[in-house]
Design brief:
Two copies of one chain form a homodimer.
Chain A (H helix, E strand, L loop, with lengths): L5 H10 L7 H13 L1 H18 L1 E2 L6 E2 L5 H4 L4 E8 L2 H10 L4 E5 L18 H7 L5 E4 L5 H14 L5 E4 L15 H9 L5
Parallel strand pairs in A: 3-4, 3-5, 5-6
Antiparallel strand pairs in A: 1-2
Helix pairs in contact in A: 1-2
Function (chains A, B): May play a role in DNA repair. It seems to be involved in an RecBC-independent recombinational process of DNA repair. It may act with RecF and RecO.
Keywords (chains A, B): DNA damage, DNA recombination, DNA repair, Metal-binding, Zinc, Zinc-finger
Organism (chains A, B): Rhizomicrobium electricum
């Protein structure tokens, strides 16, 4: 007989499926939850139920929100003629935290990857091309600077050629606060090539 | 206006309170949950609700279980004359996973710490002394080998003196699979002092 009952065992197993938590940290998290039943465990159960019920995927851009179309797609103050294409909702959140972009988004839902079997058909590419044809003037490809991200960007550049829309990508270079000594050759080389006069 | 609605924001805030998850990994976890609503998010909400409702703290040993007294305290096959004192339920779980101990447990609920204001009154010390007086023959102090754990063990040794029960502690030494080169001086010194003839 195990010292851990089935209720706790099941909780640990589910927590261990979260990214960033392994079996050991899932046990710690479960124990912490059990110790903080009223201030953490029950509110978390409620927050999960609420979010699972309320959150929808936006039919236009693929963002997650309580409404579809999402608040970003419905916001009349956002520039509809500029689309920023991201791999994932997390990237959209990151750009919104930075507050640098005031246009609209398009969430692909991943990046092309032969290894993981992610083909263009599994990404929201068709809807991007449809949107590109509806009065869009610029499409910013904000993919990750990984092999998959850059492969996806190249693929999209080809796929979007027929629409005639201007396609741009984020600049590569030295991250703000970054030290040259710690940067890889690829970043340094990109930063050199894209150097600007002062 | 934030791109993250209040439901997701609240979920992220609660997830960030789990040990092992910071704000960034909580965002990743929330997003992962939202993408796996049916296979992960709803089952997790249910598991949390179930566990919060079902799990009690054992009135005898301080273990967490669906019943109080807990299954370990009620198991007639376990040796009631040997008590193993641990700081936390996680330590009890670890010992049960190892399957080395077939007596009963006593969970202190922490270790003495002047820094964190953990005094003997905040630990389950009184109930330990009461149990020690009821036909117990050996008390194994299985505290962590930290300053707090060892302080607690010394305190308990004094506090248990009046009961006349034999008090032991876990051996210190080289962990199984451990390489000497990577061990600290304290461990090496303890392993040397406790060396055994072959």
């Amino acid at each position: 007989m195990s010292a851990i009952g089935p209720e706790i065992e099941r909780l640990i197993q589910l927590l261990a499926k979260l990214p960033g938590l392994g079996p050991r940290s899932a046990r710690r998290a479960a124990l912490d939850l059990l110790k903080k039943r009223e201030v953490l465990m029950e509110p978390l159960a409620l927050a999960l139920t609420d979010a699972a019920r309320a959150i929808k995927t936006c039919e236009i851009c693929g963002n997650l929100d309580t409404a579809s179309p999402c608040a970003l797609c419905c916001d009349p103050r956002r520039e509809g003629r500029v689309l920023c294409v991201v791999e994932d909702v997390a990237d959209l959140w990151a750009l919104e935290r930075a507050g640098v972009f005031k246009g609209r988004y398009h969430v692909l839902g991943g990046a092309l990857s032969a290894l993981d079997g992610i083909t263009p058909e599994r990404l929201n590419v068709g809807s991007l091309i449809d949107r590109a044809k509806q009065g869009v003037e610029e499409i910013i490809l904000a993919m990750n600077a990984t092999v998959e991200g850059q492969t996806t960007a190249h693929y999209l550049l080809d796929a979007l050629a027929e629409t005639g829309v201007k396609v741009t990508r984020l600049a590569h270079g030295v991250p703000v606060g970054g030290e040259l000594d710690y940067l890889d050759e690829g970043t340094l080389s990109a930063a050199f090539k894209a150097r600007r006069s002062l």
